[in-house]
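Known limitations

Files may contain more than one protein. Parsers should not assume a single record per file. Below, a two-record file is shown to illustrate correct handling: read the sequence, read the token line, then continue until end of file.
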Amino acid sequence: MSITTEHIEKVYYAFRKAQSDHFGRGFRMPKSFEKHFNNKFKEQNKKKLIKITGNFLTKWQNIDPYQYFLCGFELFGKNFSYMKFMQEKILLLYKNKDKNKKREIRVTKQGLVDSAFFVKRYMRKYGLSSLDDYIHKTEGNRKVAVEHYLKNKIDASFFVYLLGKGMILTDNERCDIPYIQTNFRKLKFNLEDLKDFLIKMGEKING
């Protein structure tokens, strides 16, 4: 596969975006990347950027450039530059992070499946026609979803999924779920990789 300027620009953008996010500062792309690349880049930096672009297009095509560069900045900080693009330790860190992420997702998926199965049976038993009915149903002063979570009938990821579907908690209910309050962002982040799965799951629960 031939490496085009457009390919190189995408990788350069991923590098600058990772740099910006790591250090918490903004950045601007050049108006004409091709001119910038041809006239402003040092020859050795051109070669490094072209080489890593080729890797992302071939043997590293399953690697996310942005996440790869984030690993580079995590390891080298402000010293991460073109000359360090191909450091083996960056690839190792990326692979370890990717494995851990996939492991978390697998666990989340299983918890979602088990939780959805339980909720589906509960809805049938009590004549609830939709998931919306479930998230608004209460027992006493507490939503049944909170009760089910506290009794380990539904897991934390599924509970966050319900929040995303419109379940609103009272202050007292929030106090009952300290783990979710503390880990909400992480749980929500894991769910973002399962959008298609969640759509199908919701259809099965409501079907």
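...continuing to the second record:
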Amino acid sequence: MKRLYFLFVALAFSLFSIAQTQGASKLYGYKQKQTPGTIRVNDNGNERPRAPQFNYYIYLVSKSTVIPSEIWVNGQPYSAKASQQSTPVEYRHPNSAETKPQILVPKTSNRVLQLTPTQDKIEKPTTKGKNLASKNELVVIYKANNKWYYKAVSKMKELEPVMMQ
């Protein structure tokens, strides 16, 4: 009977530890392809290849106060800049005549942070973040209530591309 009791307690603790890695938050991730207006050419008049550029809209919704530490986008670690947002978070395409905005984050009473990857790459990223980033397009690592949490989005939703002039 003691063995059964010990097994039950060990199973309960392992389930609690799994729940803590997720945190009581929700992560929304969107990307928008940015098409350049002027095409760069070389001296022979051939178009020079250019890597696709994206705008990222990342939102973390949580009941508690969170401090973002790392953002992984497409396997690359970045530090995070956070700004408080009110809900619902809406997006209107600048070139679209459609009057109805797209809702990125629905109305909630929880705190909403917009996270922006900064140009500063992290020198010593976390191993768990790297492992999660190998399987997911977006990973956010943050601290809440003195515990570290990891949130991942396997595939970010795509917004309508924007054309630069």
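Parsers that stop after the first record will miss the second one. For reference, the second record is described as follows. DSSP finds two helices and ten strands in the chain.
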